[in-house]
Amino acid sequence: xLSKVGPSGTGAQMVLVTIWSxxxxxxxxxxxxxxxxxxPIVSTLYHLPVxxxxxxxxxFRALVLxxxxxxLADLAVIMGSLHIFQGWEISAGAIAVTVAVVSLQAAxxxxxxxxxxxxxxxxxxxxxxxxxxMGVILPVWIGSKSAVNTIGGSLQTIAGWPFxxxxxxxxxxxxxxxxxxxxxxxxxxxxxVICLMIGARLAYRDLKSSYTLTEEMLPHPGSIGNPLxxxxxxLQEERTRAxxxxxxxxxxxxxxLTPSAVRPEGIIEQTALGALxxxxxxxxxxxxxxxxxxxxxxxxRAILLAFLGSxxxxxxxxxxxxxxxxxxxxxxxAVIPLGNPLPTAFQxxxxxxxxxxxxxxxxxxxxxxxxxxxxxxxxxxxxALPLVLAFCAACGVIGGSGVTAGVMAGLKxxxxxxxxxxxxxxxxxxxxSNDSSQFRWRQLPGLVAFLTGFALTGGLCLAVIFSRNxxxxxxxxxxALVCAWILLWAYARMFRTGKFDLLQIPQVS
Length: 509
What we know:
Elements: H1 11-36, H2 40-45, H3 52-85, H4 92-119, H5 125-142, H6 145-159, H7 170-178, H8 190-209, H9 231-236, H10 244-252, H11 267-274, H12 278-287, H13 294-315, H14 318-331, E1 348-351, E2 354-357, H15 366-399, H16 403-430, H17 444-466, H18 470-496
Antiparallel strand pairs: 1-2
Helix pairs in contact: 1-3, 1-4, 1-5, 1-6, 3-4, 4-7, 4-8, 5-14, 11-15, 13-14, 13-15, 15-16, 16-18, 17-18
């Protein structure tokens, strides 16, 4: 029997494990549809003489291997840390129990995700994850003691509830009981886990049987009302004419030869495009994918922030504060420049057994695309900074830290957003090259230097976050920005000198 030698009080930690596992389920469900249904590889496999069921098994297996790897790693770190912090005896039996619980917990998460994808595919899973994450991270970021204490008290309160009734909480209770005196009761959830696996297997079969890559070219007769009508009536109705006349008009007017220029509506779009030359504006029109709506998004977020912030600050109500944290925090993600302003340029095309980015087929250089991305992102960052400062200031007032602490946290967050812009450019280009594959030992010094630069930049960013000394914050912030630009310069140099190839290794055998 395993003995517990440390203090009690594992309820809050087990609640955290349950919440984390539930969020992992909500994160994996959309990944199932992205990997299995909407992946660009699927459209290529459609043209191969392969049954749809085999394609489903191939894509689902790839998802399980990818998600299962980080699930096992994260759960091992969480359970191992809990084992050490609680002072449980480290023995062969304890290690075996922890390994078994971690493996079963990862299987339970994947089973719950499969069942959710089968029976509730339309729920906003990712939105729920972001709401919960923002509700936990923001109070800790602001440093509000009352908010942190509220979170800790909430975990203690939930620990008194039957949270272990959730499928993601079954094995947390198993782990707790196995480390205590009543270790036989740890086997009670095992039958429920077996039933869950059986249900997930049935859901997997249902998804595979309904999986098809073919589309009907014509609607079914029963879905279009009465398909029979008088021919004379059809000839008389003008609306039954085909749309080929519109195409002919465009050909006669030579309209198709004129590039579709982006017509900016808002001041942010006008400022961003005004900072580009005519050729760069044409590249934006080709690679942007859709007309930007940055100004409209900024106005809507500003109105929402002002309304909910005023209610939360004036009311000093926990419910209003929680709504303000979650709704405004998530809505600000739309105006913060974290995405690629040229998404179409880096869209991957599967050609001749390999993936290449779309911009590889155009006469554009690394410098041109990187310059466009950085200028647009910097202008969007400057526009989003007032909203970030206002949001953090309101969080400081609500949390009891004051306006000054909130504004300081907002300045830190805004500066770090500026620091990561060069790193985001590196990430965009790295996703379309073979810089992380076909590794050679002679490239080891460069890889070590590059990873060291990333680690140094990350360390300086952490110093900016946690330091309360203004001098340290300023110097570390400037150092992080310089390191980020050095990393971008080094990557651009290797990119231009042919160190990388845009033709990736084949992803399908």
